[in-house]
Amino acid sequence: MTTTAPAIRCRGLTKVFPDVTGAAGARGLVGAAESAPGDVRALDGLDLDVVAGESVGIIGPNGAGKSTLLRIIAGISGATSGEVRCRGSVASVIELGAGFHADLTGRENLRCLGVLHGRRLDDVDRSAARILAFAGLEHAADQPLKQYSLGMRARLAFAIVTDRRPDVLVVDEVLAVGDQDFQAKCFARIAHMVEQGTTLLLVSHEMGMVAAACERVVQLRHGRIVDDGSAREVIERYLARSASRLAAAASPAAVLRPLGVEQGGPGRDSLRVTLDLDLDRPVEHPAVGFDVVLPMVDPA
To answer: What is the pTM of this model?
Structure first.
């Protein structure tokens, strides 16, 4: 469900990380306005509008500025210049476990993190059983967090942050943590929030995950938007360009054409992947590897 009113508006968003290894770092630490040689410009005058209720994936190679953009929108980090405006409440699932204390129990951490996210303590206490049940941690609620696995911590943090529907939900890569069953629960919850009008920004390197969750995709490169459109079209162009760059960087003896994937339909239908590899000379033991990620959740 979308409206025409923007839930997120970024104008001229720039983020510069100073080089702290030499003279440029000394200049950066005193707060000069302009970047110097050696500084890293993570975002470079970025403009972005996201309509209320829209689900938008942010993709791009490492260092493109994806996580920096989400951290600024979530209010975790500040921009060097430019402005960002968000309408309504913003919940971020970016650094799962930030704010946790290893010596406190899961239940005690639940109370602390809930308050840190702006909820009243009595409200958090009333929701504790529901949060622990979603995370599947009722049995471990009174154990110290230092006994939790990374996946258990991620489940608890996600359950706390998403227990109430925000106006804007910002998610960065964290759904890669945890088992497939919990990932499916996460996607079902996110999908329900979007259906109810929540605006979603999702960063992931898993294109299947982005395609399943988002209707629109924005590609970043060097802190700028280089593609923006429907999820399927942008992802197809991104994968085709990635395959072309890999082929150009590989040995001239082999050129790998962009991969084609055909899927019969949603749900658990069979998936056929065809790989075409052109070689200009014999290769004794060719090998091709790929991963298949199935994050899609049956809406039924």
So the answer is: 0.75
